[in-house]
Amino acid sequence: MVRTVNRVLLGLIGASLFTLGAAVLLGGLDLQHRWDFEVPTWWPFRGPQDVVLGVEGRTRFQGDWSWWPVVIAVLSLLLILLLWWLLTQLRRHHLAVTFVDCGDGASARLLGSALESAMSADAEATDGIAQAHVRLTGRPTRPVARVNLQLEAHAEPTKALQQLSREALRHARESASLSSLPATVCLRTVRHRAHRVA
User: Is residue 101 located within the same domain as residue 53?
Assistant: First the structure.
């Protein structure tokens, strides 16, 4: 849904900017007189001397008491919608469902949380990994994994990554019949007290 909203918003903003730019260019260069054609009566820019908002436009609703509440309400609604859009861009989307190829042309739906739990348990069974948290994003047919690992004090990061790739990621890829499962891995160490050396 967010991708559709992004495309619609970008299309509307682009069309609005293109229309406004064409109107300003047409009036600023006085093209209607140079090329000898008429513009509609509602056209805002009729020549190089025209302004964006004239005196009539600024004072048209001066005596109308309902003008300012409507303007404030519309601008508030626009601000709320823009804030919602911004927050949806910043939030990482969780993949709710992945599709598993059954081999007979049909596909089954696998809950993303179930695959995340299985991958986390598989990773935590690996030596040197104290805790694992997996989050799936992307498309249902092409998921992407974001893995946060907490390593034990004795663990070697290179070996932990190799084991994660050979075991947890490979098992998830094979069980969900995925051709690939890209992953971003973030490594942290478990906090522990420093050992005293005598």
Answer: no
The whole-angstrom separation of Cα 108 and Cα 167 is 23
CATH label of the domain that carries residue 151: 3.30.70.1350
Could you give the number of structural domains in the chain? 2
Tokens of 180: 């690939």
For residue 167, is it within any domain? yes
Distance CA 140, CA 178 (A): 10
In the three-class reduction of DSSP (H, G, I as helix; E, B as strand; rest coil), residue 31 is classed as helix
Is residue 105 located within the same domain as residue 45? no
Of all helices (H) and strands (E), which one includes residue 133? strand 129-138
Q: Which domain holds residue 169?
A: 97-189
Measuring CA to CA, which residue among 1, 179, 2 is closest to residue 99?
179
**Per-residue b or e along 124-155, where b marks 16 or more CB atoms closer than 10 Å to that residue's CB:** eebeebeebebbbebebeebebbbbbbbeeeb
Claim: this prediction has a pTM higher than 0.70: no
Query: In this prediction, what percent of the chain has a pLDDT beyond 90?
Result: 7
DSSP state of 160: H
Assigned token pair, 61? 């609703």
pLDDT in tens, 85-125: 888 777 656 777 888 777 777 778 888 888 889 899 988 88
Range list of H helices, the chain: 2-28, 31-34, 55-59, 67-90, 112-124, 157-163, 170-175
